[in-house]
Structures are given as C-alpha cells and as structure tokens.
C-alpha cells in the first residue's frame, strides 16, 4: 500500500507580502549605503582630491602666473573642480589664445594652454622704441627691443592700441600664410591699402598680392614674373599681372 505524498504547503499571502517588504527595505538600505559611500569618496574623503596641477604649452606666460590665475587649491575635491570657470579666468591672460582644463582622475588637474602666436611686428613710437609683436587678431603678444628676423614689419597708419580686431591685421596675416615659402622668408614689411595686401622683400622688390584668395595661381604667376627681375609685381587681379622695372 503506497504512502500518501505530502503536497507543499502554500505560503500565506500575508507572509509573502511581508517578505517582499523586507527585500525592498534591504535593497533600499543597500542603495542608500552605496550612494552615501560614493558621496563620501567624492566630497568628504581625501582619496579623490587635487594633489597636483600640471601646466603645459606655456612659453611666454610663466607657469606660476597660470597657476595663480587658475586658482586650483590642493586638497580641493576633484568633483568640485569647475573646468569652465578655470578656463574663463585664464582667458583673461593676454598671451593666452585658448585653454583646455582636463581632470585626470584620481588627483590631477591638467591645464593645456595654447598661446598666441605673433604674425607681424609693429614699430612703437616714443623714446622706448622697439616693436610690439602682434597676433592675427591684433592682440599684442609682447614687446621686444628689436624686430625678430622672421616677423615682417606691419605698416599701418592706425595706432597700435587700435589694432585689436582690425581686419587689416587679420588680412595681412592670412596673406603671409599663403605666400610661397621663397617669398615669405624674404618679406621685411607688409601693408594693407584698400583691402590690397602688399609686401616688400629684402631686395627692395614690392609684391602686391591682393587678398588671400587664389594663392596657387598667384604663386605660379609670380614665379614666372620674377624671372624678369623687375622691382614691382602686381598679381592681385585675376588673370592680370603687372610688372615695373
């Protein structure tokens, strides 16, 4: 005679509901503990704080100046380092063109500086003399006593204080960038008149280049014309070239 099989007793609905509540409470407490631990690690502990600030890309601006203006204090929680605010402060340094602030976890802030590059030199009137080195935006990068050989003199009737944002400076810099290397290395001065850029070479030759458009064609035409050994070349007009001996 076979023995009866005992069927599993179903858990009462009230007990099942109670078990679900305990599990929910457990997971809720665990999640709260994780959040509290993360918050403590980011804000309260000394594990994720600034221990070093590294500055790269500086040549004109002393690193000490960048660090002072950036204002990142050692011991600051990394999560509280505001890259946008640091960049805004550093943009106020005249020689700085752009800045990128990178948080290198767990404890380092890297400030990558791109400095302005001078395109032309402008003679300074007055007893001090010398030259202001100016970037394509018209910003004075620095003052020097004598003109660097690689930078042409910018001829302008506009005082240096009014050059910032002057389109003629940007136009001159744009043309200097597209000049053939053999011509660019010989430029001693550059000027802009009625939108036309002209350069004077070491030999005394004047080249009216016009604007920065059509650089390839202008370079080819100028190379042919310079075989005539003239003293003046005008390649500014499309399809028209002028020389004067």
Structure write-up:
The chain is α/β, with parallel strands linked by helices and 245 residues long. The protein has 3 domains: 15-45; 52-115, membrane protein fhac (Ubiquitin-like (UB roll)), CATH 3.10.20.310; 120-244, Rossmann fold (3-Layer(aba) Sandwich), CATH 3.40.50. Helix content is 31%, strand content 25%. It is built from 6 helices and 12 strands. The strands form 3 sheets. The protein has a 6-stranded mixed β-sheet with strand order 7-8-9-10-11-12, covered by helices on one side. A 3-stranded mixed β-sheet has the order 1-3-2. The longest helix is centred in the N-terminal third of the chain and has 32 residues, at 13-44. The termini are far apart. The model has no long low-confidence stretch (mean pLDDT 84).
Quick summary:
Helix content is 31%, strand content 25%. The chain has 245 residues and is α/β, with parallel strands linked by helices.
Topology summary:
Blueprint: H1 13-44, E1 52-56, H2 63-70, H3 83-90, E2 96-104, E3 108-115, E4 120-123, E5 131-134, E6 140-144, E7 153-155, H4 167-178, H5 181-184, E8 187-193, E9 196-201, E10 206-210, H6 215-225, E11 232-234, E12 242-244
Parallel strand pairs: 1-3, 7-8, 10-11
Antiparallel strand pairs: 2-3, 4-5, 5-6, 8-9, 9-10, 11-12
Q: Numbering strands along the chain, what is their spatial order in the largest sheet?
A: 7-8-9-10-11-12
Distance between the termini: 132 Å
- The SS-based structural class is alpha/beta
Q: Average pLDDT value? A: 84
Low-confidence parts: none
Order of helices and strands: HEHHEEEEEEHHEEEHEE
**CATH architecture assignment name of the largest domain:** 3-Layer(aba) Sandwich
Overall shape: elongated
What percent of residues are in strands? 25-35%
Question: Cα-atom Rg, whole angstroms?
Answer: 34 Å
């Amino acid at each position: 005679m076979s023995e009866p099989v005992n069927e599993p007793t179903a858990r009462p609905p009230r007990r099942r509901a109670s078990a679900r509540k305990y599990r929910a409470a457990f997971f809720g407490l665990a999640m709260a503990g994780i959040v509290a631990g993360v918050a403590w690690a980011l804000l309260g502990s000394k594990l994720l704080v600034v221990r070093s600030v590294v500055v790269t890309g500086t040549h004109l601006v002393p690193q000490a100046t960048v660090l002072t203006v950036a204002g990142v204090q050692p011991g600051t929680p990394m999560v509280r380092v505001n890259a946008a605010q640091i960049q805004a402060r550093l943009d106020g340094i005249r020689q700085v063109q752009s800045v990128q602030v990178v948080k290198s976890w767990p404890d380092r802030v890297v400030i990558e500086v791109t400095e302005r590059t001078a395109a032309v030199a402008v003679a300074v009137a007055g007893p001090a003399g010398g030259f202001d080195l100016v970037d394509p935006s018209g910003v004075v990068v620095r003052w020097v006593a004598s003109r660097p050989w690689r930078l042409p003199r910018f001829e302008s009737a506009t005082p240096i204080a009014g050059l910032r944002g002057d389109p003629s400076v940007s136009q001159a810099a744009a043309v200097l960038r597209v000049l053939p290397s053999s011509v660019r290395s010989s430029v001693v001065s550059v000027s802009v008149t009625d939108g036309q850029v002209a350069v004077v070479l070491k030999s005394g030759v004047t080249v009216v280049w016009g604007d920065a458009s059509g650089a390839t064609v202008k370079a080819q035409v100028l190379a042919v014309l310079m075989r005539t050994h003239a003293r003046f070349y005008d390649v500014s007009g499309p399809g028209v070239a002028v020389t004067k001996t």
